[in-house]
Amino acid sequence: MQTTLSSATRTVIIGDDQPTRLIGERINPTGRKKLTAALLAGDLDMIRQEAVEQVGAGADILDVNVGAAGVNEEKLLPQVLQMVMETVDVPLSIDTANPAALKAALEVYRGKALVNSVNGEERSMQAVLPLVAQYEARVIALTMDEQGIPADPARRLAVARKIVERAESLGISRDRILIDCLAMAVGTDSRAGWITLEAIRLVKAELGVNLTLGVSNVSFGLPDREAINRTFLPMVIAAGVNCPIVNVARVRDVILAADVLAGRDEFAMNYIRYFRAQQKANA
Amino acid sequence: MQTTLSSATRTVIIGDDQPTRLIGERINPTGRKKLTAALLAGDLDMIRQEAVEQVGAGADILDVNVGAAGVNEEKLLPQVLQMVMETVDVPLSIDTANPAALKAALEVYRGKALVNSVNGEERSMQAVLPLVAQYEARVIALTMDEQGIPADPARRLAVARKIVERAESLGISRDRILIDCLAMAVGTDSRAGWITLEAIRLVKAELGVNLTLGVSNVSFGLPDREAINRTFLPMVIAAGVNCPIVNVARVRDVILAADVLAGRDEFAMNYIRYFRAQQKANA
């Protein structure tokens, strides 16, 4: 199954026969005081810089989130999208919990956007899916609903199936949906990583869809979080994730190695090219 | 399923509910001129040092291989085993292609040894399995036979099944068998990593046995081999390998992170203990 996203000038294809595609997570004020302050002051320079740096580091898609206390998302999100579209040419993921801001953002977006996100709650599906249908967008679907995030992988699959069926009933084919099986903190629940891996395998086997995953949360509360995140990525890629949301500069090397091992990099050409570029940069 | 190995004083349990157990690969002259020269001169100091270092780095089991041109394995292998048993207390893996040397080594070993290895060739099964039965040993079974190493994961499963059934007919229960699905070089065949991963999943699902894997070969011919090996390990652990053969000092950290993520390290205690020890060592 292939999922295509596009900007005005560029198309990205997500699929099991493609290299792993990376959604850059850095345009997001959550937990970042400086970025939040800049946003509130209407200063978009930091975001412009994040956009350039992430694409330079190898991001295929950029997530754009401006949600912070005091921000008028409905006004700011389209502005920021506009600016990012003028700065880089990769497709964008519109990341907001505010349906009015989502609609305003989709209105200015040029290409086939990724909407981040819908979940299995009736309220969420009713607010988000009609917009996805109307704007011919693609959408990230989180495996949670009114009962929360299931601890049972089979229940996460059930939520994924519910969202896929609802989307299809609105004319959104399943190739336009990226399922996110949700990574919870392993420091809090030792079974959390395994549950996510098992849910990914089930969703891939039963629904055949493409999958994203916000990876960073898995290491919350542990020392050397980067080591945990970098180790989880090969595991989730082998299980079926083909478009994770990551801090690209920190994980690109391990993604390229994983692609070689998953048979998604013929003759290891991407891996070797990256290795040579790093050698040159360090020479 | 649990596989138990033992030395005179220590037992190691291999199982999916256990931390990943590591077989140290460094007592092996293949491709190491200095070690080969020392062996030929009857000088065992380097091997003694390798044994101490690997156990210090976290090896649960040590592989012992003295096979090199000019070496009388039948005489040297029992001597080296004897010395290693006097030096460290972990269980040992007896690694030889010579049945007479294997018998001589099993004769001096104290505990339940691991025999490395049998494969699906009639000749190999006939030479090795009776010794495994006689000495109550455990055995690594390679998924290859007279036709070579199958490119089809289902055929690797078929070879594994053949060896397991033959072993059972000789009274060797399947908990005494570690299947090695064989990692070939991804630099030569882009599908090699995927084939191994798929074979591991099949063998785990269909036979329920424990699995080892010689990992290093997968990166042959590529730049930064360690990056490839370190990325492959989380993938194969998530797929079902629970006792890989590795250069322990180079991969211990990534194994500990993978165990946290695979739900094999309650409260991340092993991971955090290692992290603190490293901090202390670097302080």
Give Rg of chain A in angstroms.
18 Å
The topology string of helices and strands of chain A comes to: EEEHHEHEHEHEHEHEHEHH
Counting H and I runs of at least 4 residues, what is the number of helices of chain A?
10
Q: How would a crystallographer describe the biggest sheet of chain A?
A: 8 strands, parallel
Oligomer description: homodimer
Mean pLDDT of chain A: 96
What would the principal axes of the Cα set say about the shape of chain A?
A: globular
| Span of the ends, CA to CA of chain A | 41 Å
Outline the low-pLDDT stretches of chain A: none
Describe the structure.
The structure is a homodimer of 283-residue chains. By secondary structure, chain A is an alpha/beta fold. Helix content of chain A is 48%, strand content 14%. Chain A has 10 helices and 10 strands. Chain A has helices at residues 33-40, 45-57, 73-87, 99-108, 122-134, 153-169, 192-207, 225-239, 248-261, 269-282; strands at residues 3-6, 11-14, 23-27, 61-64, 92-95, 114-119, 138-142, 177-180, 210-212, 245-246. Chain A has an 8-stranded parallel sheet with strand order 9-8-7-6-5-4-3-10. In chain A, strands 1-2 form a two-stranded antiparallel sheet. In chain A, helix 7 (192-207) links the parallel strand 8 (177-180) and strand 9 (210-212). In chain A, helix 6 (153-169) crosses helix 7 and helix 7 runs parallel beside helix 8. The termini of chain A are far apart. Chains A and B meet through helix 7, helix 8, helix 9 and helix 10 of A and helix 7, helix 8, helix 9 and helix 10 of B.
